[in-house]
């Protein structure tokens, strides 16, 4: 490389960094936070709804309550934002008291055992299993204290629950003794080797679900975020000291030390480690900034399974189980919801296979799977929601909810379903459901900090067309990630 080319590259790197450093720091910090939806404080602290954009505002109702129990008109609704109760069909809401807890746990699942009213309701939370009091106003710890429970279902009978820990481990809970027994996870998943839509692959790479199996892809994303934040700070410090230090009266020793350590942090340590995740995060950010147009453009474009990254090839269950259902009419049989589809394992088997009986819509894999008493529900996007009575072979399609259902409850002869936007009701065993108009959105006002960070990350908090500026910063990040290692190769340590 000639000296002229090297000087040009350093100039480009310097001005690209100075232009983008502040916003890249914001993107890095907010991106790390968005990788960790499981952090309670992100979901249970909120900002005024007026602070966020209409695009994000449309997502807020889905976070208020996902799981529900209705008994004699009294409603208990729960989600990652906490648990609320209403005795006047949603006009007013009060928080449920969790005895022995310093705050409201994040609730990720609800099991309704038998016909015991609220006393039969168990909540799978981020700190263990809780049981509601008979009046639904409070809850007590029941089992698995400190465990991050991510899904739950009634087991083979009303004397047992099956649950998922950290989206990875299956356990059976004896309700008489309050004890938990691990369920053998099986040897592997037989993942259907179907092509994956190109837009989904890009999204999964950006969100940390594709390049590596389990939690390793998220860890790689976090490394990219930490590297980008550290590079922004150390690069600015290096420029400031080399240009401003003497004028501000810094001693030569202090200047040399600051220059040396800011460079070592900036280039050979964080820069080289973070170059790869910064590159793929920045490249995938470009289509993500225009996601709806990108999805339309990529319709019909797929990637063969053999060409997919390791995150799609792994057959391990780690970080892959989003829902679980036990079938009392088929002892030992379990079904799980994964991003690869609904998988089932019969008694005595070690392999999880695709459940072809579930009417999964074409082109869709992941969905919600849960059971209430003797009915199993499967919820997919686009209003593709289904119910199946235990002991019967056929699924029936539920008309009414236009998005995937997340919870259900029976109150007398009425069945209630919950999706992101409303409560629906109809006769038990029926297929036609109507909107109840229950005003659940005022149960928890404001926008959770998690969605506020998402609004900030994509820039819609400022203007819906901020995506074009985000494109510029993504390109600058790519330039920095490519030019930085080349410059370092000529200079090495100082």
Secondary-structure map:
Elements: H1 3-34, H2 40-44, E1 46-47, H3 54-57, H4 61-64, E2 67-71, E3 74-79, E4 82-86, E5 94-95, E6 97-98, E7 107-112, E8 121-125, E9 128-132, E10 138-143, E11 149-154, E12 160-165, E13 169-174, E14 179-182, E15 188-189, E16 196-197, H5 198-206, H6 216-244, H7 252-288, H8 291-298, E17 302-303, H9 310-313, E18 323-326, E19 334-338, E20 341-345, E21 351-354, E22 368-372, E23 375-380, E24 384-389, E25 396-397, E26 407-411, E27 414-418, E28 423-427, E29 434-435, E30 447-448, H10 449-458, H11 467-491
Parallel strand pairs: 6-10, 15-21
Antiparallel strand pairs: 1-30, 2-3, 3-4, 4-5, 7-8, 8-9, 9-10, 11-12, 12-13, 13-14, 16-17, 18-19, 19-20, 20-21, 22-23, 23-24, 24-25, 26-27, 27-28, 28-29
Helix pairs in contact: 1-6, 1-10, 1-11, 5-7, 6-7, 7-11
What does this molecule look like?
By secondary structure, this protein is α+β, with helices and mostly antiparallel strands. Helix content is 34%, strand content 26%. The chain has a 5-stranded mixed sheet with strand order 6-10-9-8-7, with no helix packed on it. It folds into 2 domains: 3-55 and 209-302 and 449-491, no CATH class; 61-191 and 315-445, YVTN repeat-like/Quinoprotein amine dehydrogenase (Methylamine Dehydrogenase, Chain H, 7 Propeller), CATH 2.130.10.10. It contains 11 helices and 30 strands.
């Amino acid at each position: 490389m000639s000296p002229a080319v090297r000087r040009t590259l350093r100039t480009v790197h310097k001005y690209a960094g100075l232009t983008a450093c502040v916003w890249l720091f914001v993107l890095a910090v907010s991106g790390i936070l968005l990788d960790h939806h499981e952090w309670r404080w992100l979901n249970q602290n909120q900002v005024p709804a007026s602070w966020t954009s209409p695009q994000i505002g449309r997502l807020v109702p889905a976070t208020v309550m996902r799981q529900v129990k209705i008994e004699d008109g009294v409603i208990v609704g729960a989600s990652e934002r906490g648990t609320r109760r209403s005795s006047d069909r949603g006009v007013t809401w009060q928080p449920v008291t969790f005895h022995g807890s310093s705050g409201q746990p994040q609730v990720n699942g609800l099991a309704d055992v038998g016909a015991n009213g609220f006393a039969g309701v168990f909540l799978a939370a981020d700190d263990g299993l809780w049981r509601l009091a008979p009046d639904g106003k409070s809850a007590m710890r029941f089992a698995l204290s400190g465990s991050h429970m991510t899904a739950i279902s009634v087991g083979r009978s009303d004397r047992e629950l099956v649950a998922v820990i950290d989206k990875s481990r299956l356990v059976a809970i004896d309700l008489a003794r309050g004890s938990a027994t691990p369920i053998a996870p099986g040897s592997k998943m037989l993942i259907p080797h179907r092509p994956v839509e190109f837009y989904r692959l890009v999204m999964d790479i950006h969100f940390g679900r594709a390049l590596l199996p389990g939690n390793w892809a998220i860890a790689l994303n976090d490394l990219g975020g930490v590297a980008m934040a550290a590079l922004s700070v150390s690069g600015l410090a290096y420029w400031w000291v080399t240009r401003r230090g003497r004028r501000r009266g810094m001693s030569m020793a202090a200047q040399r030390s600051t220059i040396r350590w800011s460079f070592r942090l900036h280039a050979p340590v964080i820069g080289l480690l973070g170059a790869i995740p910064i590159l793929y995060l920045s490249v995938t950010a470009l289509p993500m900034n225009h996601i709806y147009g990108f999805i339309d453009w990529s319709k019909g474009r797929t990637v063969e399974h053999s060409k997919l990254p390791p995150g799609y090839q792994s057959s391990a269950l780690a970080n892959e189980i989003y829902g679980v259902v036990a079938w009392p009419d088929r002892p030992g049989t379990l079904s799980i919801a994964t991003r690869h589809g609904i998988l089932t394992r019969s008694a005595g088997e070690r392999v999880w296979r695709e459940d072809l009986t579930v009417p999964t819509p074409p082109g869709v894999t992941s969905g919600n799977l849960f059971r209430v008493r003797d009915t199993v529900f499967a919820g997919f996007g686009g209003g593709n929601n289904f119910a199946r009575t235990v002991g019967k072979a056929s699924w029936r399609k539920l008309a009414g909810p236009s998005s995937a259902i997340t919870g259900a409850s029976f109150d007398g002869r009425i069945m209630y379903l919950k999706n992101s936007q409303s409560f629906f009701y109809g006769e038990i065993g029926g297929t036609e459901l109507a909107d109840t108009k229950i005003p659940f959105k005022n149960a928890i006002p404001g926008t959770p900090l998690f969605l506020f960070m998402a609004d900030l990350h994509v820039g819609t908090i400022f203007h819906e067309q901020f995506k074009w500026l985000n494109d510029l910063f993504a390109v600058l990040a790519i330039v920095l990630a490519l030019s930085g290692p080349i410059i370092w190769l000529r200079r090495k340590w100082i």
